[in-house]
């Protein structure tokens, strides 16, 4: 297991694009949370606030022909891979005009045009799916890489170990990204695993395991650049553990009685979005340009969510259509 830290040498325009995606994702989460609080969004809402850096870095490295197999806090990489904000809003709201006709909801997003294969009903079930997609690309001799996201709690499930073993022995072109936010639902990670780092588990499968500051987009970019390059070149999978923190509860409305308020406050000081904004200022990006980005993404999200609220809700025809075969008579 290795630990990666870095100071950015990325071109400033690329860094600005990464910040725009992070700001877009943050605006989406904040405005969606407000809509949920108003009772206009049914079901659950699991906020991704605090996870923006890792997903934005991954999205910056993925080609159109690459594949993303996300999990329920992967919305920033989903947006970065190419799902429009408007489509994501329609899907989460369960609207008939959504790409999946409102079936996906918040936790099962997929978007085939951008090669995003949806999160699953059982946490961790996406990990072997990623291995399968990578195997398909390998069999066809394609220059494609699969990136798969999940949380640290999921790495205690059998699917994680089975899939990593298979990916390792077949040298599959897949990069597994564990976004370790220290809590699996309401349980701290130290109560679920003996080791301090999920990345240490990679050694059991003979593949690289890397720990990176998941709140630093440039450090994550450097780490994933190497891992994706290795996968694309036939070097097999990598397990990347991005240490981060969810600044909201497990779900919207979570009382968070299991977390120390001082701990939350400490991590809030490391919030990746304002931290990266400060880094760009230090790289001489004008304040008015950053402010314009903040305003533009907020407006884009507001328009998308307003349109989704006004769109027709998915009905029985949309929810059950194209699911069951039509009964035929002999």
Tell me what the structure shows:
With 330 residues, the chain is an alpha/beta fold. The protein has a single domain, classed as Thiamin diphosphate (ThDP)-binding fold, Pyr/PP domains (Rossmann fold), CATH 3.40.50.970. The protein has 11 helices and 8 strands. A 6-stranded parallel β-sheet has the order 1-7-8-4-3-2, with helices on both faces. It has a two-stranded antiparallel sheet with strand order 5-6. It starts with a strand and ends in a 10-residue tail after the last helix.
Keywords:
alpha/beta, Rossmann fold, six-stranded parallel sheet, two-stranded antiparallel sheet, globular
Please render the helix and strand layout as text.
Layout: E1 2-4, H1 12-37, H2 52-61, E2 67-69, H3 75-81, H4 85-92, H5 126-139, E3 146-151, H6 158-169, E4 174-180, E5 183-184, E6 187-188, E7 209-213, H7 217-232, E8 238-243, H8 261-268, H9 272-282, H10 287-310, H11 316-320
Parallel strand pairs: 1-7, 2-3, 3-4, 4-8, 7-8
Antiparallel strand pairs: 5-6
* Biggest beta sheet attributes: 6 strands, parallel
Q: And the CATH topology?
A: Rossmann fold
Q: What's the CATH class label?
A: Alpha Beta
Strand order of the largest sheet: 1-7-8-4-3-2
The share of residues in extended strands comes to 5-15%
Low-confidence spans? none
Approximately how much helix is present in the residues?
Answer: 40-55%
Oligomeric state of the chains? single chain
H-E order: EHHEHHHEHEEEEHEHHHH
The second-level CATH architecture is: 3-Layer(aba) Sandwich
């Amino acid at each position: 297991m290795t630990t990666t830290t870095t100071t950015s040498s990325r071109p400033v325009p690329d860094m600005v694009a990464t910040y725009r995606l992070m700001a877009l994702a943050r605006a989406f989460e904040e405005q969606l949370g407000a809509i949920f609080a108003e009772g206009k969004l049914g079901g659950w809402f699991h906020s991704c606030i605090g996870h923006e850096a890792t997903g934005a870095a991954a999205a910056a490295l993925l080609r159109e022909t690459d594949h993303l197999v996300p999990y329920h806090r992967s919305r920033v990489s989903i947006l970065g891979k190419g799902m429009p904000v408007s489509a994501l809003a329609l899907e989460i709201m369960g609207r008939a005009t959504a790409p999946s006709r409102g079936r996906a909801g918040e936790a099962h997003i997929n978007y085939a045009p951008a090669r995003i294969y949806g999160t699953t009903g059982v946490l961790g079930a996406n990990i072997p799916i990623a291995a399968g997609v990578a195997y398909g690309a390998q069999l066809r001799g394609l220059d494609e890489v699969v990136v798969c996201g999940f949380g640290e709690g999921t790495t205690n499930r059998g699917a994680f170990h089975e899939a990593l073993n298979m990916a390792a022995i077949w040298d599959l072109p897949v990069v597994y990204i564990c976004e370790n936010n220290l809590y699996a639902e309401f349980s701290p990670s130290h109560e679920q695993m003996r080791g301090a780092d999920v990345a240490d588990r990679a050694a059991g499968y003979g593949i690289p395991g890397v720990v990176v500051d998941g709140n630093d987009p440039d450090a994550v970019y450097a780490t994933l650049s190497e891992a994706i390059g290795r996968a694309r070149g036939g070097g097999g999978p990598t397990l990347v553990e991005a240490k981060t923190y969810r600044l909201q509860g497990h779900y919207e409305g979570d009382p968070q009685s299991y977390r120390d308020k001082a701990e939350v406050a400490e991590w809030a000081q490391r919030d990746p979005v304002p931290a990266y904004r400060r880094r760009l200022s230090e790289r001489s990006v004008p304040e008015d340009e950053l402010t314009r980005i903040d305003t533009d993404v907020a407006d884009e999200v507001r328009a998308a969510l307003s349109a989704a609220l006004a769109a027709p809700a998915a009905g029985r025809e949309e929810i059950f259509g194209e699911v069951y075969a039509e009964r035929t008579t002999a």
